[in-house]
Amino acid sequence: MRTALVIGTGLIGTSAALALAGRGVRVHLVDHDPAQARTAAARGAGTDQAPEGRVDLAVVAVPPAHVADTLAEAIRGGIARAYLDVASVKGGPRRELEAMGCDLTGYLGTHPMAGRERSGPMAATADLFEGRPWVLTPTRETDTEVLNLALELVALCRAVPVVMDADAHDRAVALVSHTPQLVSSLVAARLQDADETAVRLCGQGIRDVTRIAASDPRMWIDILSANPGPVADVLAGIAADLDETVTALRALESSDEEQRLGGAAGIEDVLRRGNTGRSRVPGKHGAAPAAYETVTVLIGDQPGELARIFADAGRAGVNIEDVRIEHATGQQAGLIQLMVEPTAVTGLTAALRDRGWAVRQ
Fold first, then answer.
1. pLDDT by residue (tens digit) across 146-176?
2. φ and ψ at residue 81, rounded to 5 degrees
3. What is the rounded average pLDDT of the residues 313-337?
4. Cα–Cα dist 359/132, whole Å
5. Can you give the pLDDT at residue 286?
6. d(CA 297, CA 356)
7. Sheet with 3-7, edge to edge strand ranges
8. CA angle at residue 111 from 69 to 93, to 5 degrees?
9. What is the per-residue pLDDT for 115?
10. What is the pLDDT of residue 290?
11. What is the arithmetic mean of pLDDT over 13-40?
12. Fold that domain 3-164 belongs to in CATH
């Protein structure tokens, strides 16, 4: 791949352009808002000048509602050897293109499983896709050259290719991406009119659950509008679980011992199913989640403290497998949770205490 055209210079399009440009591909940028394309170009993502001839690959990175029309125009214009999109839904756009009578041998639907709460070219980064799954949805009609160019794009972005059927992809992202966004927003919405005293009690749990609720509503309306059925199906299952959970909680208020036992059993069932589901979420390097132990340390909110504690762990010969920080309300300090192999806990704890860290049991 020597040349590429990125149509749509938001977070995903500009990030892909930055990755390609950084690896020697001449990238041309176009957007319905020329100022946004100029911003992406100024960041080193390519040039906002039109290509002189046909490019090797056209990457359509526009909202799902506009994918089919944008692709159809590009395909009919013959602007590239191959065409792909990066929308978060795959079945709908392809069916729209088929209905338009487009030749789809040169098209491949893709979806990089990466993103941020922020949007636009200023939020883009060349390493956004590194190590992340990038779904490819080829069909029998997909030309081999197109698939090869798509695989080259994924490799240049240092992502991991995953081949799926388009409709299976849409059902999957409804479960693991689209529904979590709505559930996070629903929980965060409870805080809107909550008493300030309650809000001040927010800890790491509520922060974890509501993190993605900070996402751009306009972007998510576009995404959900393109995949409403599968998302509604998942939410219907959650709604049924919620109804049963509410019934179980009401039973715990009962004066009848049998009802209370039944309520406790209902709560235990949903919690245990949650344990089982959580255990299936891939852990480090895509493997099954490991049973790490946590070493909790009080850390000050000053420059260099994180680097210092990681360096001290390194000197102790301990690899930090994961890390979380819980900030203390109204204080210039917090608790850092270092996840390590169980066999490393004793040695790390002793080493950190020797170096003056306040390790919490």
1. 999 999 999 999 999 999 999 999 999 999 9
2. -75, -30
3. 84
4. 34
5. 56
6. 11
7. 26-30, 3-7, 55-60, 80-85, 107-112, 133-137, 160-163
8. 25
9. 80
10. 60
11. 96
12. Rossmann fold (3.40.50)
Q: Which two tokens stand for residue 113?
A: 């499983």
User: Residues 6 or more apart from 291 whose CB is under 8 A from it?
Assistant: 342
pLDDT of residue 285: 55
pLDDT digits (tens, 9 = 90+) for 208-222: 899 889 888 988 898
Tokens 């090797």, residue located? 56
Asked if residue 64 has pLDDT above 90, the reply is: no
* Tokens found for residue 175: 């479960």
Written as one letter, the residue type at 68 is A
Tokens read off for 143: 């030309």
Whole-angstrom distance, CA of residue 149 vs CA of residue 138: 12
Closest CA to 77 of 5, 18, 170: 5
For the chain, the structural domain boundaries read 3-164, 196-284, 293-360
Provide CB contacts within 8 A for 87, sequence distance 6+. 60, 62, 63, 64, 67, 93, 109, 111, 226
Q: Does CATH number 3.30.70.260 belong to domain 293-360?
A: yes
Nearest CA among 92, 97, 175, 106 for reference residue 138? 106
Q: In this predicted model, which residue has the larger pLDDT, 60 or 202? A: 60
Residues contacting residue 190 through CB under 8 Å, at least 6 positions apart: none
